[in-house]
Specification:
It is built from nine helices and 19 strands. The protein is an alpha+beta fold and 413 residues long. α2 packs across α3, α6 runs parallel beside α7 and α7 runs parallel beside α8.
Length: 413
């Protein structure tokens, strides 16, 4: 066989192979494989059904392109919330088999953590362009506390790496081991600062860090009470702490909600019963049309004889905001908010389990004040704006010299 015939034969065989392959593919495409689609997308289809039923904007939920249902439930929910056009940044979904913390305070998370929160900032002395991770909070009974870290420490290196946003991740995910930590001193004029000490700190193994609802509490001169709350969920613990404090002849109560970003409306209601000074409607909830039977009005007797000062931050979220918003509307003369603007969660979430190893947390109701207003989606603006991060020294929470407490005790009282 000559070369030209060999080339023609090879080309013919190649064409035949292509035709056979295409025929096989067409046959495969013609097979009914609906069961595979249903099996792989059934979780997201149920998620959509739950959202249509419970979601505050449930009537906005529409079918998506079939390809979208192959997404992970944790990603699929954002495709549904986008339909509402309500700028919903609160609803989320969690896979039941994977532990994660949906409500961290800044860089702090409860899972696989050292138990501290930090903020990235430039050298406060102004001597260098170096960045530091400023320790804002050290939680009780945490690895960070056990190795001696404290509020207002400045971390300059993590495992010999200079501080940067990418390096901070090692403090968050439990991968750091050695820190270079500096402490700040203040000159007499309080306008210049210097480093007093620099130490090497070895971190113990990271772990799950649980935070008590009542982080700290104390009295100032038997007339001013102070309580710092990390959540508004543990009703019995919080109510007991407040009742102990109210055995004193209180003229003022400072409720520190800087780190409070979770809770239930039931707990908020019980706290308001104790610290509210006016009687009447405290909060109202508005659910979607299908669940309007769940709409509820919460009232209090309002017997407190003291003013309430709320301390807020950008972490202050959800239940903490409902407490502030409701009481301030009832008795604006007896409620003063000090700090920075809050996160702006004017909706209540509900945990809804599924049959497919995920739990849905959709926004199910607006939380409104006595007049039905829930206009705080951009956050609650404080009456007295004070940003503690602009101060050189951050003393322990509850310390009389701590920035926010000093501001209230010396300026507002």
């Amino acid at each position: 066989m000559n070369i030209s015939k060999q080339i023609n034969l090879t080309a013919h065989l190649l064409k035949l192979a292509v035709v056979l392959f295409a025929s096989m593919m067409l046959a495969a495409c013609g097979e009914d494989r609906t069961y595979e689609y249903e099996e792989k997308t059934i979780g997201c289809h149920q998620l959509q059904e739950l959202m249509a039923e419970w979601y505050l904007w449930g009537d906005s939920i529409k079918d998506l392109d079939w390809q979208q249902y192959f997404a992970k439930p944790t990603d699929f929910i954002s495709k549904l919330t986008a339909q509402s056009k309500a700028n919903d940044k609160w609803s989320y979904c969690m896979i039941d088999t994977i532990e994660s913390d949906p409500l961290p305070c800044g860089y702090f998370n409860h899972v696989d953590s050292y138990g501290m929160d930090v903020v990235l900032m430039n050298d406060p002395t102004g001597e260098t362009s170096k960045q530091y991770a400023r320790v804002v909070t050290v939680y009780d009974n945490s690895p960070a506390e056990r190795c001696g870290l404290r509020r207002n420490d400045f971390i300059g290196q993590v495992d010999n790496n200079k501080m940067a946003s990418t390096v901070i991740k090692n403090l968050v995910n439990g991968r750091a081991r050695t820190l270079i930590v500096s402490r700040l001193g203040v000159n007499g004029d309080e306008e210049s600062f210097y480093w007093t000490a620099t130490d090497t700190v070895s971190l113990p193994k990271s772990e799950r860090v649980e935070v008590s609802a009542v982080m700290t509490s104390r009295m100032f001169d038997d007339e001013v009470g102070y309580i710092m709350l990390a959540n508004l969920s543990e009703t019995e613990t919080i109510v007991a702490a407040l009742q102990r404090m109210m055995t004193y002849p209180l003229t003022d109560l400072i409720v520190d909600l800087r780190l409070c970003n979770s809770g239930t409306i039931e707990c908020v209601h019980e706290v308001a019963k104790l610290i509210g000074s006016k009687a009447g409607t405290f909060l109202r909830t508005y659910w979607n049309t299908a669940k309007s039977a769940n709409n509820q009005t919460y009232t209090i007797e309002g017997s407190a004889q003291f003013r309430v000062f709320f301390i807020t931050s950008g972490y202050t979220q959800g239940a903490a905001e409902w407490l502030i918003y409701g009481l301030r509307a009832m008795s604006p003369d007896d409620v003063v908010v000090v700090g920075t603007t809050t996160a702006g969660q004017n909706v209540m979430l509900k945990a809804i389990p599924s049959d497919y190893q995920f739990t849905l947390y959709p926004a199910v109701a607006f939380v409104a004040d006595k007049d039905g207003s829930y206009d705080y989606s951009k956050g609650i603006v404080p009456d007295e704006s004070v940003d503690e991060m602009t101060y050189a020294m951050l003393y322990p929470y509850g310390n009389v010299y701590e920035v926010m407490i000093q501001y209230i005790l010396t300026i507002l009282l």
